[in-house]
Amino acid sequence: MCRSTALRVALDLRNVPSLVRHVRTKPLPDGVVLLLQIAAGDQCAEQKALTLVDRPLPEIRDAAGFFIEQILFAPEADSYRVLGVRPSASMADLRRNMALLIRWLHPDMNNGRERCVFVGRVTAAWEDLKTHEKRAAYDARMTQRISLRPATGKARSRRWRKSSTRIAWPRKVHRPLTPVRRTIGLLGQLLSLFSRK
């Protein structure tokens, strides 16, 4: 495949963001390293991108950042995907991509954007994969997690339809405290304190 596949996908995603959900389900395209280098500010990578696609440099930079945020840092992404590699990647590839992502997330590169929230994801992914032993343990956990997933699709729905067992749901459902509910609760406590005195 052409090394600019990821760049073309990133530009398409920037122009049609509704494709994000579809791209998240697919394997990573070739050339993610080029996107990471562009995002990290590598001028050689930027010049290479300008020769590969006929788009202005700010659009290419935005597309690279959008791809990283939406595809690599998707909520369901595993540690390999967060670092922009496939599970067969070498340790050198993992280390290089981690360094590029950290450089991109550095406050000097942010230009006022709130990307620092992703630093934890990158460092956690690196901790999972940084040695051969940790990587083997992570792979074992991932294969175990996949094997424990419940059946999905038509077979599950047919099984559900055949079942006549009803589930007794509890009457009171616990709702997490939102900031508004928390504030109302605190105001109620304050009012009860003042009414006692």
Question: What ranges have pLDDT less than 50 throughout 5 or more consecutive residues?
Answer: 154-163
SSE pattern, N- to C-terminal: HHHHHHHHHHHH
Average pLDDT, all residues: 83
Count of distinct strands = 0
The helix fraction, in percent, is 55-70%
Task: Describe it.
By secondary structure, the chain is mainly α. The chain has one domain. The protein has 12 helices and no strands.
List the keywords.
single chain; 197 residues; mainly alpha; 12 helices
Structure described in brief:
Helix content is 64%, strand content 0%. The protein contains twelve helices and no strands.
Task: Please write out the topology.
Blueprint: H1 5-15, H2 20-24, H3 32-39, H4 43-52, H5 57-72, H6 79-82, H7 91-105, H8 107-110, H9 119-129, H10 132-147, H11 154-162, H12 179-196
